[in-house]
Specification:
This protein is of the alpha+beta class and 215 residues long. The protein has 9 helices and 8 strands. Helix 2 (26-33) packs across helix 3 (37-49) and helix 4 (65-88) crosses helix 6 (109-119).
Length: 215
C-alpha cells in the first residue's frame, strides 16, 4: 500500500480534529482541509479501501490502528519541527505551525531521529500542545478551557489552538501566549482578562481555544 502525502494529510486531519474534541465527519474534513465535499468523498473511499479508516454511525470517521499509527507519526514529526523552529532558530511561536506544515513531508526518518535526539521528548510545542493530545488528556494535566475559569481567578496559559494563524497573531498582540499569567475579570457572553497590564476581551468561542491552569 502506497501512503501518499494526500493520505497522510487526511489521516493527520482526522487525528487533529479528534484532539480538539470534534466528532469527525466528512464535513469536518472539508472544513479542516479546505477542500470540496466531492474530494473528501473520494479520499474517504480510498482510505477505507486501504484499511486506514472505518465509518461508524452517522458517518463518523474513525482511524484504524494502522491509520492512527501513520497519523501519530506525522503529528510527532510536525511537533518536532515546530520545536526546532522555535527553540533552535528562534522563529516566533505564532509562525511555527504553518512552517511545520510546509516542512513535515520533506523530513526524512534520519533527520527526524536527529531532531528527537537534539530536542528530547516530553516537552510541549511553542503553542503549549503535545504531539498527541486530547481534551481528556489536557484535563488530566489539570487544564481547562478559559471560559471555565472563575471571576478574579489567576490562571496561566498552558496551550492554544494552533491551526489559525490570524487567531494566534491576535493573541500575541494581546499578550496572551503559553506561559503568560492572566487574571480573569468576567466570564459571561465574553471573557474579559487582564493581560500584560491591559484588559483583553475574547468571545466565548475564541476563549474556548485557550487552555489554562489555575495558579
Amino acid at each position: 500500500m502506497r501512503i501518499t502525502i494526500s493520505k497522510e494529510n487526511y489521516l493527520k486531519a482526522i487525528a487533529e480534529a479528534e484532539s480538539e474534541g470534534e466528532n469527525v465527519k466528512p464535513v469536518t474534513l472539508s472544513r479542516w482541509l479546505k477542500v470540496s465535499a466531492p474530494a473528501v468523498t473520494m479520499a474517504i473511499k480510498r482510505l477505507k479501501r486501504d484499511g486506514l479508516i472505518r465509518i461508524g454511525k452517522e458517518s463518523q470517521i474513525q482511524l484504524t490502528p494502522s491509520g492512527r499509527e501513520i497519523a501519530n507519526r506525522l503529528l510527532y514529526r510536525h511537533h518536532l519541527i515546530e520545536r526546532m523552529l522555535a527553540e533552535i532558530f528562534g522563529l516566533e511561536w505564532y509562525k511555527t505551525h504553518d512552517e511545520a506544515e510546509a516542512l513535515e513531508h520533506a523530513v526524512s526518518a534520519d533527520f527526524e531521529r536527529k531532531l528527537a535526539e537534539k530536542l528530547g521528548n516530553g516537552c510541549p510545542c511553542p503553542h503549549g500542545n503535545y504531539a498527541v493530545d486530547s481534551p481528556r488528556e489536557r484535563r488530566s494535566r489539570g487544564l481547562k478551557p478559559l471560559p471555565e475559569a472563575h471571576r478574579q481567578e489567576q490562571v496561566a496559559v498552558a496551550g492554544v489552538f494552533e491551526r489559525d494563524r490570524e487567531f494566534l497573531e491576535y493573541l500575541d498582540r494581546a499578550g496572551i501566549r503559553p506561559g503568560v499569567r492572566l487574571e480573569v475579570l468576567t466570564v459571561n457572553g465574553e471573557v474579559a482578562l487582564e493581560a500584560a497590564g491591559r484588559t483583553v476581551r475574547l468571545e466565548q468561542s475564541a476563549a474556548a481555544r485557550v487552555w489554562v491552569k489555575s495558579v
